[in-house]
Design a protein that fits this description.
Chain lengths: 435, 158
């Protein structure tokens, strides 16, 4: 096995493998082994021992989530349990699930079969965002092939279990990626998040036990079962298992997806992405997508995993970095993020529905040099009221406050300069964002 | 104009396939859009009747999801990314040039009905920033340059 177990088998043009081609690369051996030899408990233990943390943003241990699912007969009432693969990927700066969906659909299906098996689910739904049409097509085709081959459908591999799998193409709105909103969307409702508890494992899709995992998380399961948890652990440089499908974009010369050991540093990733563009000197970066707090050059040697990045005051999130050189204004990035989160608010709770557009307006005013010093207090107050784990109904608002809050803390001078000088001093000196 | 019998069959299949009528609403709207570009009142009502849901239920989801269009869109759809990574790579210069060329802003359609321009969040193409997705099959294009918009308007752009 290469050191890129997730993306190593992708073709350069991202053309997906047929089932036969995938099997020739060792595909479906993990499924055969898991279902014929290991059994659900052992598969779950392997994922546990591998220390696989969810790759969708929060880093919750996959096996721990799976253990909340009821055993056969233990769920109240009749009906299936559901395993949902979250392929909504709309976080600013995130483009890592795309390659896994487009180029490696059979890897995803293998992982989903094993995960559904370990969590006693008989139906799998893959939700994919509207813009990923190749992904929708490739995953749908691969599912049909896997059904034909008996990996999905009735009595899979003679285990006596039935397993259905289908793709649900979505139709826009970032909030659909939040797992309870996603469940609402699948039920044919407006995608407004649900109150928790009950958690999806107790009452999810159509009131049935449900587990939601990210595309990358699910894609890790096949390789773990094929090669063992120790192997997966040993891929990582830290206590969190595996490689990570990182992505680097913004002000770098060669923005790209990079699969590298968990714990790889930001400095190494930026270098592999061709180095900082613009004036070549790093001002700051967001380590894990739009909702992660800013870090500065002193964090270049920080090993990137959920624990290390959280301790450094940010969030590992999706592991997809946005890089700013010295000629890029962090307020400009924050302004784009606030406009985005404000627009994507589902409208359910007041701090988010009303607060985010207000914040976005102030950011636009700052950029145009029309804000007042008092406006900065409004921004600060909003961060305090609605920041992470604050008074909003779901994490969309809290997430949005991370770049704003860390921006205010780290670049206070720059905020004030925008007010004092009546313009963006960086755009004045270097031109507006044009790279 | 009513829905074609092929579309009705496809909607019925979606209904019977997974999860029942409500779960098939978004898919039905998407199917209508693939063929007609947008969803008019008559089509929405017909799809609702085919699924056996109310028009209000159908409208409820149709108005929530941003990529279900309840107004006519142009022959060619341009969904231009306004995310941060695109901004960092000159996305707004591209935006300005596209608007100048079409004479319209975001959310508008050219008077000849040819182009509709919409801003969209990060399209997962930050490695091609500044990026856009175009057409009914959402082809990813980029990196775009204000001086060369062939990817949006050239021969190959669908
Ligand atoms: C506003 C919002 C958007 C989200 N979008 C996504 C998404 O697009 N993809 C994803 O996998 N998780 C997304 N999440 C996280 C999910 O709620 C959920 O935690 C995740 O899918 C669980 O998978 P994991 O445990 O494998 O990480 C989002 C969360 C929030 C609050
Ligand atoms: S924070 Fe509130 S309004 Fe914002 S997306 Fe979540 S539930 Fe909706
Ligand atoms: S920010 Fe434009 S494609 Fe990601």
């Amino acid at each position: 096995m290469t050191e890129m177990p997730l993306t190593g088998r992708a073709r350069p043009d991202r053309a997906p493998h047929t089932l036969a081609e995938w099997k020739a690369l060792g595909g479906y051996e993990a499924v055969e082994r898991g279902l014929r030899e290991l059994g659900p408990e052992r598969v779950l233990d392997m994922v546990d021992d591998a220390a696989l943390n969810g790759r969708g943003g929060a880093g919750f241990p996959a096996a721990r989530k799976w253990r909340f699912m009821p055993k056969p007969g233990a769920a109240p009432g009749d009906g299936p349990s559901y395993f949902i693969v979250n392929g909504d990927e709309m976080e600013p700066g995130a483009f890592k699930d795309r390659i896994l969906l487009e180029a490696l659909p059979h890897q995803l299906i293998e992982g989903a079969i094993l995960a559904a098996y370990a969590t006693h689910c008989s139906e799998i739904v893959v939700l994919i965002r509207d813009a990923y049409r190749d992904a929708i097509r490739n995953v749908s085709r691969a599912i049909a092939e896997a059904e034909e081959a008996g990996y999905l459908g009735r009595n899979i591999l003679g285990t006596g279990r039935d397993l259905k799998m289908w793709v649900h193409p979505s139709a826009g709105r970032y909030i659909v990626g939040e797992e309870t909103a996603l469940i609402e969307a699948l039920e044919g409702k407006r995608a407004v998040p649900r109150k928790r508890p009950p958690f999806p494992a107790q009452s999810g899709l159509w009131g049935r036990p449900t587990t939601v995992n990210n595309v990358e998380t699910v894609s890790c399961v096949g390789p773990i079962v094929a090669n063992g948890p120790q192997w997966f652990q040993s891929l990582s440089r830290t206590a969190e298992g595996g490689t990570k499908v990182f992505a680097v974009s913004g002000r770098v010369h060669r923005p790209q997806v990079i699969e590298a050991p968990m714990g790889t540093t930001a400095g190494e990733l930026i270098e592999r992405a061709g180095g900082v563009s613009g004036n070549g000197r790093l001002r700051c970066f967001q380590p894990g997508g739009g909702a992660s707090g800013f870090l500065e050059p002193d964090a270049l040697d920080l090993p990137l995993d959920f624990g290390h990045v959280a301790r450094a005051g940010s969030m590992f999130g999706t592991g997809t970095m946005i890089v700013l050189d010295e000629t890029a204004c962090p307020l400009g990035v924050i302004a784009r993020h606030m406009a985005f989160y404000g627009r994507e608010s589902c409208g359910w709770c007041t701090p988010c529905r009303d607060g985010l557009p207000w914040v976005a307006k102030i950011m636009a005013d700052l950029e145009a040099g029309q804000a007042r010093m008092e406006d900065l207090d409004v921004l600060q107050m909003t961060v305090e009221v609605a920041g992470p784990r604050g008074r909003s109904f779901c994490d969309l608002m809290g997430g949005a406050m991370s770049p704003l809050g860390t921006g205010l803390a780290r670049f206070r001078d720059l905020f004030e300069a925008h007010v004092r000088e009546g313009c963006c001093p960086i755009a004045r000196d270097h031109g507006r964002a044009a790279a | 104009m009513s829905l074609s019998s092929e579309l009705i069959t496809a909607i019925e299949e979606a209904r019977d396939h997974h999860g029942g009528p409500r779960a098939a609403m978004v898919e039905s709207l998407r199917l209508i859009q693939m063929e007609h570009g947008w969803v008019c009142d008559a089509h929405l009502e017909e799809a609702a009747a085919t699924l056996g849901v109310t028009t209000a239920e159908m409208e409820d989801v149709a108005t929530f999801f941003s990529l279900i269009f309840r107004q006519p869109v142009g022959e060619k759809l341009i969904l231009l990314c306004d995310g941060a990574s695109c901004w960092l790579n000159g996305g707004e210069d591209v935006r300005d040039r596209v608007m100048e060329r079409l004479g319209i802003g975001f959310g508008q359609t050219t008077p000849d009905g040819k182009y509709t321009l919409i801003n969209i969040c990060c399209v997962g193409g930050c490695d091609h920033a500044p990026a856009a997705v175009i057409g009914r099959d959402r082809k990813l294009v980029g990196p775009l340059s204000p001086d060369d918009l062939d990817a949006l308007f050239g021969e190959d752009a669908r």
